[in-house]
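Q: Predict the bound structure with sodium ion.
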Amino acid sequence: AARPRVLSGIQPTADSFHLGNYLGAVRQWVPFQDTHEAFYCVVDLHAITVQPDPKELRHRTRVAAAQLFAVGLDPERCTVFVQSHVSEHAELAWVLNCMTGMGEAGRMTQFKDKSAKYGEGAASVGLFTYPILQAADILLYHADQVPVGADQKQHLELTRDLAQRFNHRHGETFTLPSPFILKEVEKISDLQDPSAKMSKSSSSPQGILDVLEQPSSLRKKVMRAVTDTGTEVKADEVDKPGVTNLLRIQSALTGTSISDLEARYAGQGYGTFKKEVAEVVVDAFTPIRERTEALLADEEKLDRMLAIGAERARAVAAETMTKVRDRVGF
Ligand code: ADP
Ligand code: NA
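A: Predicted complex:
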């Protein structure tokens, strides 16, 4: 039987993925290569909703793509591509825009969060219709499953509603995607403010561990991570959120359970613990950084890999759009 199809995207909005992106998303994309027909997309059309500098966007798109290959996505086993290379995304998004109610779009809570910082009316219409572009990304490829965190569930519901609406009005065209709930990686917290999530948009540089960061800098940040005045290495979300976050990071990167880690550090204090967490992070990130740097240094190779991905993605997207155009009346 054909493998189920999965689609996921990541925005090129920083110079590196951070530990949260890695554990909460891209690392979990790797195993789908062997169980699913997987499409992974660097969503640069989504990124322009907040008007980035063009040079920076171009650079970040390449860095994001290189990192996806560097974490282990293999162009022989999955399709990695850049969204803007496949113009059908924008075209389908327009069709879906015309089928979405203003009120319906206005109920998307992520827009309310993301637009808050712009002040009344200043956020772009693109940011407002962002979930509709996301629906187009998914529906173009007839994705059966979409790996999502809790924050994306509402957008996937909208995608299903739009697929159903189109199918009802124009005849069976789109597959209704199901959420694939990612293996529980609880939120990775900001090292300096363990009550907040590690986030490129809200964390201070000291609170974030970037995949492409140098070992010396990673070590410094882990050693300076906020803990508490106690000495016991123990998971306790309420009284020890900083220690809990570091335990979670070490556990996720090594596969050792948190209780085994607690037992190992019994009576040892925070110094030894933090040093070992730092080494685990350095060991995880170093090969990814080196592979990313090598790919970025070989522009032609990266271009070639992305051209292969775009070609494969385009073949599927073009077939979908041919149907859509015909049914809409073009
Ligand atoms: P940011 O919050 O830094 O802007 P994004 O929202 O672009 O990151 O997240 C991209 C992906 O990484 C999403 O799938 C999200 O769930 C995951 N992710 C981001 N931050 C974290 C975190 N702190 N812990 C776990 N997963 C995260
Ligand atoms: Na975010």
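A: Residues 223 and 274 are 6 Å apart (CA to CA).
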